Amino acid sequence: MTSAVESGPIFRSPWPDVNIPDLPYADFVLAKAAERGDRPALIDGPSGRTITYAQLAGGVGRVAAGLAARGFGKGDVFAIYCPNVPEYAVAFYGVAAAGGINTTINPLCTVEEVTRQLTDAKARFLLTVGPFADKALEAAERGGVEEVFVLGEGVADGHGRSATPFAELLATDAAPPSVDIDPDGDLVAMPYSSGTTGLPKGVMLTHRNLVANITQCRPILSTVSDDVVLAVLPFFHIYGLTVVMGMAIEAGATIVTMPRFDLEEFLRLHQDYKVSRGFLAPPLMLALAKHPLVDAYDLSALRFITCGAAPLSAALEVAVAERLGCHVAQGYGMTETSPVTTASPDDDAQVRHGSAGQVLPNTECRVVDHESGRVLGVGEIGELCFRGPQNMRGYLGRPEETAAMLHEDGWLHTGDLGYVDADGFVFLVDRVKELIKYKGMQIAPAELEAVLISHPAIADAAVIRVPDEEAGELPKAFVVRAGEISADEVIAYVAERVAPYKKVRRVEFIDAIPKAASGKILRRVLMAKEAETGA
Fold first, then answer.
1. Which long-range contacts (CB under 8 A, 24 or more apart) does 395-402 make?
2. How far is 363 from 76, CA to CA, in rounded Å?
3. Separation of alpha carbons 122 and 313, rounded Å
4. What whole-number distance in Å separates Cα of residue 168 and Cα of residue 164?
C-alpha cells in the first residue's frame, strides 16, 4: 500500500454539506431531553420497564456527579460490559458528561478477552449485569479495574471480589461536574475493532466524530420523534452505539432494547411496540425474507429498514421490501468512521438496490488501486477510501497500525473493495482485509490462528472466511497436525478459548500452510483452493 492517496477523481455527496455543532457529545444528544419530559426514551422490551427522557437527563447528570465524587474525570476510561438494556445509555452519556471515555465490550467475550481490553484501555471502572458478574469481577481484578458496578443488587463471587450496585453511583444530589471538553480533541468512545488486520485495537473516537456522524446522517436517515426503534443491534458495536443509541435519542424517538436475540421475541416486540424503523444486519434480513414465523406477526408499523454491518444482495433487499411492504436500503461504514460513510435515503425513488448508497455530506470518497495507489474512476474496482470529520483519531497506542490505515492527508483506507457508478452509488465487491464477518461481527483470523497453534497437536494453522447463507461468513481452519487430533477436537479447543461467535466452524487438515518468503500466511491461496474445491 502506498503511504498516501495520489491525486485523482473524488466522489462527493449529492447532499450539501451540513453545519456540525461544536458541542460535547452528551450535550448534543441530550439537548432536548429534559423538555421531552415523560416521553419514553428507552423501554426494556421483555419487561416494559421504561426510562423517560426526563429520567434519562437526570440520570446522566447523577452518574457524572457520582463518578466525579470517586475521582473519575476527563480522559479516564469506563468500561461497559452489558447487553442492551436502558441503563446502557444512562451510563454511557453519564461517562461522556463527566469527560470520560467509554470502552464498550462484547458481552460474549471470555474472561481473557475482557481482561485484554480492560488492560489495553486502562479502564478505571466497569459496569456489568448480574449474569456476567463472575466473569467481570475476575477480568476486572486481572485488568487493574478499581471498582465494578452492577445493575440491580450488589454481588460477590466467593473469591473476595464484589460489585457495587449501579444505583449507588446515582445516589447523589450533587450537581454534575463542569468539565471543559474540547469536542475536536477529547475522546468519548473507544470501541475495539480489528481494523483491516490483526488483533482488536482501541478505536479512538472524539466527541466531534460522533456529533458529526449523526449530523451527517440527518438529511438521509430521517429518524424522527414519532419513531420507535428496536435496538437489536448491540450497543457495544459502533452501529448500535451511534446510529441507534445516539441518533434515535437525539431525534427524540423511543428505543426498545433487546438484551438477547431470539427471532420470535424480535418479531413480537415489533408487533407489540409498533416498531417503525429498523436498523439491521444481513442475517436478520435473511430471516425476514424467508422464515415462516414472520407471517405470524403484524409488522405493518415498520416503514423503513436500513441494513448495514455487511453487504446485502439486491435480491435479498428486494425480497424483504416486498414481503413486509416497507422501504429497504443499505448503508456502509466501519468502527473507524464512527461508523457511517455512505447511506441510502428514506425514498424508494432514490435507492439503488444492492448499493451501499451515496456518500454522506462533508465526506469525500476515492477508489484506489490497492497495490499501486493509483486513483480510479467511475465503475473501476479498487479499495474504498474516505475523508471526513467522522474519521477516527487513530488506534490507541498503535501508531504503526494507525499510519497504515489513516494517512497524513486525512484519507482512511477501509480495506474494502468496491466501485462508484456514474450516479454516485457505492457498491461493495469484496474485501482486501482478511477479517471474517460472522453475522456482522468481526473475527480476526490472526487471533484464531494464535489459539490454534497453542495446541500441542497442531504444528501450524491458517484461518480464512468461507461464505454462509445464514451467517454471511464462517471461519474455516486449515490445520497442519503435529500429533493425533480430530476436526471436532480442534473446534472444541478453540470454542473453549474465544467468544462463541468467533469459534471455528469448519476444519481441513493439510500438509503445509502456504506462506510468503517473509513468513506471512498466503490466505489468498487457501481461499482460491476453497473456491475451486468447494470443500
1. 395/195, 395/201, 395/202, 395/203, 395/204, 396/120, 396/121, 396/190, 396/201, 396/202, 396/203, 396/204, 397/120, 397/202, 398/201, 401/195, 401/198, 401/201
2. 30
3. 41
4. 7
pLDDT digits (tens, 9 = 90+) for 99-152: 999 999 999 899 999 999 999 999 999 999 999 999 999 999 999 999 999 999
Q: Do the beta carbons of residue 415 and residue 431 sit within 8 Å?
A: yes
Task: Give dist(CA 86, CA 56) in Å, integer.
Answer: 9
Q: Read off the pLDDT of residues 489-510 as tens digits, 9 standing for 90 and up.
A: 999 999 999 999 999 999 999 9
What is the per-residue pLDDT for 154?
A: 87
Report d(CA 245, CA 233) in Å as an integer: 10
Is 339 within 8 Å of 242 (Cβ atoms)?
Answer: yes
CA distance 192 to 24: 22
Which residues of 222-326 form beta strands (DSSP E)?
A: 228-231, 254-257, 277-280, 304-307
Q: Is the pTM of this model over 0.90?
A: no
What domains are defined for the chain?
Answer: 24-36+52-182 (3.40.50.980), 436-533 (3.30.300.30)
Say how far apart CA 214 and CA 38 lie, in whole Å: 24
Closest residue by Cα to residue 237 from 463, 414, 80: 80
